[in-house]
Amino acid sequence: IFMVAAPMMTSSIDINLPDGANNSEKEDKQPTTISIDNEGKIYINNENIKLAHLKKKLLAYNQNNLSTPIFLRADVTLDYGRVMKIIKRINDAGFKNVSLATKIEQ
After folding, report:
1. Would you give per-residue pLDDT tens digits along the chain (106 residues)?
2. What's the Cα-to-Cα distance from 2 to each of 12, 28, 51, 85, 99, rounded to whole Å?
3. pTM of the prediction?
4. Is residue 104 helix, strand or coil?
5. Where are the alpha helices (H) located in the chain, listed in sequence order?
6. Count of alpha carbons within 13 Å of 46, Cβ hemisphere only?
7. Separation CA 69–CA 60 (nearest Å)
8. Across-strand partners of 102?
9. Are strands 47-49 and 98-104 parallel, antiparallel or unpaired?
10. How far apart are CA 90 and CA 61, in angstroms?
């Protein structure tokens, strides 16, 4: 799991990201963004989905291409266990290139 800086991603989902280091690593493939807002709602790109449908939707979005990078944006107020549960679902779907988004420290 890598950490990526938030400015490289755009989304209409309002997420208060935790602070982190600046990692300007570039991805060759277009990533899929999974967001979890402060209420625990899950979004793939900007579509609200249920946790039970995460694996199926993630595979469909990426046309079963398991090498697609996944960026996970989770609100800083969320319970760590909730975030880890979603990371496990992403890994169980077969995706191993998962990056956690953070804000760049000022």
Report:
1. 544 544 444 566 777 766 665 554 544 678 999 999 999 999 999 999 999 999 999 999 999 999 999 999 999 999 999 999 999 999 999 999 999 988 877 6
2. 23, 15, 22, 17, 4
3. 0.73
4. strand
5. 54-61, 80-92
6. 6
7. 14
8. 5
9. unpaired
10. 13
